[in-house]
């Protein structure tokens, strides 16, 4: 059964019943369906914002979200890499099931099967207008994208009514904007050409400018220091034009991915260099989105979720921030790409006045892979067994504090497929040695044992920036007692490690890990 046929034949729930089971019928019937704004930040680490411990730069607008909503302390991206994390978010399926571990780039086809149900499909069949604005990074087309033609299938074939944004990532080409199916500003007489140098601004950590060029008109519209502002303005316009009916906005910022290119007004405003300046711009963007909702009378009936695609990255800007006393991922071990907690434990804040308790905090284990199922619950939609197979409904954790954990486990991935990881209760089992991300200094950043040495982080398998000769080939940590993962217990607790290893093998082949519908 194709996705189109499933959506076309789906029986849409009554608008008044979107919240059935969580409010009395009379209240549910009186409440209009909430708008949903999902702000998906790029590379924002667990320690990068004030309400999670940052002190070297300030994030008053994001901190206000936490004061007016709920802050989660055990939220995770299903993958520590950007494209794979976005795959999990959109599909509610672990990315390793689709063999997605690493970022996709200029020549990559769409890595999401258009027949697979996405979070946008879920909202669209509930009667919502849907938009994706910002970073896409999931590929286009059925084969190598034709940047001069139709970029199809893409976001519009995955349930979004509208798309505008950066097609890949702000550090890699093509350095243009895409709107719906086409590159913005492209004209036939001035096409984009593979293997030609692009005429774009030069910044450190901006790679691959010789991979595609030409099209002076299209490149001229993409100015690195104004990208954040342009994406914000597009989001504001879209919100204002859809305020009469329920809407779902997936706003995927390019902040704070390198290169760090804040607008001039934010340069030099932080104590952590360009890294912190880019965080300051992000905080302003979030504040402007919230102000727009308030001005349009949408503030009280909009569920706003802010989270990150993975942990903070120890690139050149991150290293500079660390030297100034900033801890990208707080007290967590490791960085983006790693199976260690710093790679995937991320900020997660939810705000919905009158529904989510202001100033509250939750230690529930949740993941971005859970968004799809939670949106289905929000709109009173049952899911078929092939829809969001790894996505748990964590809506109750947003609205109240359940007495029992919603998730009894979570599978996590690093960029190295050998480092598939199982979280179960207080325990986390990593199926290989090390973090599974960068192993040393590369063009993108610092990783592995040298990164831990640089950042002053301790792990019992590592000494002086190198693995010990007798370091075990797998890892086990008790996060309740040792959240910083300083001590590998795989040899001290072999029975626990073996049980988790066996369960991970079972979960890898399971077709459904979320609770089946009654």
UniProtKB/TrEMBL annotation:
It holds the Pfam family Sulfatase. Gene3D superfamilies: 3.30.1120.10, Alkaline Phosphatase, subunit A. One of its GO terms (molecular function) is metal ion binding. Residues 34-379 form the Sulfatase N-terminal domain. Keywords: Calcium, Hydrolase, Metal-binding, Signal. Residues 461-495 are annotated as: Disordered. Residues 1-29 form the signal peptide. The keyword Calcium applies. The keyword Cell division does not apply. Belongs to the sulfatase family. PANTHER family: ARYLSULFATASE FAMILY MEMBER, ENDO-4-O-SULFATASE. This is Arylsulfatase. The lineage of its organism: Bacteria, Pseudomonadati, Planctomycetota, Planctomycetia, Pirellulales.
